[in-house]
Write a structure and sequence with these properties.
The protein is α+β, with helices and mostly antiparallel strands. It is globular, with a radius of gyration of 15 Å. The chain starts with 20 loop residues before the first strand and ends with a helix.
């Protein structure tokens, strides 16, 4: 059973030793029609004007991987296998001027796409190529994480 309510509030939020909020995100991906054509899932911001990958606060009662999986479910309505961390970035908050967050990104190999999910009414989702996603994604740090994922997956496919 899947919870259809998003977590809210900051009372369980993690912060680093500099007081920066810790944020975890995911790049949901799949291979189109079972072949080698990589697709990634992007979502709109809650206001619907920007495209990005699912991300949100890392809470005290979960691992980074659990937070990444939860954000993908809440914001994009997908479930899957969280894989090895892509990296850590420091980025400026869009809502709080002068405030920085620390973001961790993970790949999520999608195994299930849900018809109903917690933020379905406030977000849209769209599968696209990695190059298309790189063009529409509004966050530089997420674009860098996408580049790392594409390089990693290209290396793996060449090694097999």
């Amino acid at each position: 059973m899947v919870c259809l309510v998003s977590r809210t509030g900051r009372h369980l939020q993690r912060y680093n030793n500099k007081g920066r909020r810790l944020v975890v995100g995911c790049i949901p991906y799949r291979y189109k029609n079972g072949n080698d054509e990589l697709e990634v899932l992007v979502i709109t911001s809650q206001k619907g004007q920007k495209m990005m990958f699912p991300k949100g606060g890392w809470e005290l009662d979960e691992s980074a991987e659990e937070a990444a999986s939860r954000e993908s479910l809440e914001e994009a309505g997908v479930l899957g296998n969280v894989q090895c961390e892509l990296g850590k970035w420091s980025f400026k908050s869009k809502s709080c001027s002068g405030t920085y967050h620390e973001g961790f990104m993970f790949p999520l190999l999608v195994t299930q796409q849900l018809d109903l999910w917690p933020e379905k009414n406030v977000r849209q989702r769209k599968w696209m190529s990695a190059s298309e996603a790189r063009e529409v994604c509004q966050h530089v740090w997420m674009k860098e994480a996408l580049d790392i994922l594409v390089d990693r997956l290209t290396y793996i496919s060449k090694a097999t």
